[in-house]
Design brief:
By secondary structure, the protein is α/β, with parallel strands linked by helices. It has 2 domains: 183 residues, Glycogen Phosphorylase B (Rossmann fold, 3-Layer(aba) Sandwich), CATH 3.40.50; 145 residues, 3-Layer(aba) Sandwich (Rossmann fold).
């Protein structure tokens, strides 16, 4: 047996969802993993086998099951029978039950992929309750692996002395050189994400209506799926909704955009923004802390966003500036910076 195997570190990832950005981020963590790390994914299986979302990663698989009530105990049983050196819990629900049921002696890394108590759309009472739960669970957390400076600040506010480490997201699609925007190209904006409150489809609806009232038509597309009611409302506002797509199909939809517009009301740090920048698509983001800190162009309201969209699409120099801001962001958030951060988290624990 080689020394690399002798000194390897076993990481068990607990993931409760198979669509959206979280499993894509976990795939990137595994692909960009430093050498000498062995991975196991504990997630719900589909038709008796691991979900196709994991097909391209080198990992062992365990079935988390579909029942929310049974997932905590299935996790405890799986961890007791494993050789895990580190448990890495991804997003809020696994973050909660993993920290409650983990066997003693196995350290926990928790990646919230955005804290729910940061959601401005929920009541103050609910945010307070969720923050209180996270503060209690922080005492059972060894490392918060967060996506942005804003998320790091939120984690530190939870106290309990847990280490906070920033692990940047990285683009999940192949890079493409930026292309000049042809003046006769379709004027098309798009957003990638789950049709759910966090991504704020209502903002895209308002943007589409503002743009429809302008002098030049602008197409709008929502790349993703989810809630049927949101899908219907978007379509009624003239926004094309693709539904869930394979990664190559998402890439083609991105490549057809003139401008990527991110509407989410809060984020840890969105993969889709990095994906758009990697494909050379100029990015305009909503003014939220995680985006504001990386220097992208941002907007505050639907009217402000529509004005920014028109200005960018009418001005090649402004569009190029938006592209360059995306390139500078990618220089900080890429496979190399991610691998270095993961190495420090998994081995440093």
């Amino acid at each position: 047996m080689s020394s690399e195997v002798d000194h390897s570190t076993s990481v068990v990832h607990v993931v409760d969802r198979l669509t959206g950005g979280v499993p894509v981020a976990v795939c990137d963590y595994i692909r960009n993993s430093p050498r000498g790390i062995r991975h196991t994914i504990l997630s719900p299986w589909v038709e008796g086998r691991p979900s196709p979302i994991w097909d391209d990663v080198d990992a062992a698989h365990l079935d988390l099951g579909a029942s929310r009530l049974r997932q905590p105990m299935r996790t405890r049983a799986a961890l007791r029978g494993s050789d895990a050196d580190v448990i890495h819990a991804h997003s809020s629900f696994p973050g909660a039950f993993v920290r409650l049921v983990r066997p003693s002696g196995i350290p926990v890394v928790y990646s919230p992929h955005c804290f729910k108590f940061d959601d401005p759309s929920v009541s103050r009472a609910l945010r307070t309750a969720v923050r209180g739960a996270e503060r209690l669970l922080a005492r059972r957390t060894d490392v918060f692996a967060v996506l942005s400076g804003h998320e790091a600040d939120l984690a530190r506010q939870l106290g309990a002395g847990a280490r906070v480490a920033r692990v940047p997201n990285t683009a999940s699609v192949p890079p493409r050189a930026p292309r000049a925007h042809a003046q006769d190209a379709p004027r098309r904006i798009g957003m990638v994400g789950r049709l759910a409150g966090q991504k704020d489809p209502a903002m895209m609806i308002a943007l589409a209506r503002e743009l429809a009232a302008g002098p030049a038509p602008v197409e709008a597309v929502w790349i993703g799926g989810g809630d049927d009611a949101w899908m219907q409302r978007l379509q009624e506002a003239g926004v094309r909704v693709t539904g869930w797509l394979r990664k190559d199909e998402v890439t083609r939809e991105l490549d057809a955009l003139s401008l990527y517009v991110h509407t989410a009301s809060y984020e840890g740090f969105p993969l889709s923004v990095l994906d758009a920048a990697a494909r050379g698509i100029p990015v305009l983001g909503r003014r939220i802390p995680s985006l504001d800190e990386v220097g992208l162009l941002t907007f505050d309201s639907a009217s402000d966003g529509a004005a920014s969209v028109r200005r960018l699409l009418d001005d090649p120099a402004a569009l190029r500036d938006a592209q360059e801001r995306g390139e500078r962001m990618l220089a900080q958030m890429n496979p190399t910076t991610q691998a270095d951060a993961l190495d420090a988290v998994w081995r440093g624990i």
